[in-house]
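> forwarded from #structure-qc
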């Protein structure tokens, strides 16, 4: 596993330790992390604060996203995939897409290269979280119970 996915996993673990949903993300340019974030919906009471959105916000104003790569521990949802497409991020590397298939096809249709690593560490972390917190997970992905 590369150091950037390890950093995204670290962000996911930080979110979990804060009582949130364990999804992490980093934005990379020229071999260095320029933004990092994790899902903060619970911690900040903000329905938009998904990991990828938090990561992009932490990166700040990036004049040109065409030379960046976004790493995420879980397949981005349509909200986050929309940001990827909007900003022209050409490549997204995903830890796992078993727990949530998200918007991989949408990004692909918009010429974003999506690579799913199918990492056991990511899928096991999410499976455990979903099993222990089904209502919170359903809220995060927009399912009303």
């Amino acid at each position: 596993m590369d150091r950037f996915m390890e950093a995204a996993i670290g962000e996911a673990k930080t979110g979990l330790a804060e009582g949130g949903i364990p999804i992490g993300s980093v934005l990379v340019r020229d071999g260095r992390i320029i933004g990092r974030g994790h899902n903060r919906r619970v911690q900040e009471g903000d329905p938009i604060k998904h990991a990828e959105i938090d990561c992009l916000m932490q990166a700040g104003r990036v004049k040109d996203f065409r030379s960046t790569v976004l790493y995420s521990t879980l397949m981005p949802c349509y909200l986050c995939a929309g940001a990827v497409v909007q900003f022209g991020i050409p490549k997204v590397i995903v830890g796992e897409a078993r727990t949530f298939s998200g918007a991989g096809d949408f990004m692909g249709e918009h010429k974003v290269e999506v690579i799913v690593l199918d990492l056991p560490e990511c899928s096991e972390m999410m499976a455990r979280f979903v099993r222990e917190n089904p209502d919170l997970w359903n809220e995060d992905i927009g399912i009303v119970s």
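QC bot note: The first helix runs from residue 3 to 17. The chain is about 45% helix and 20% strand.
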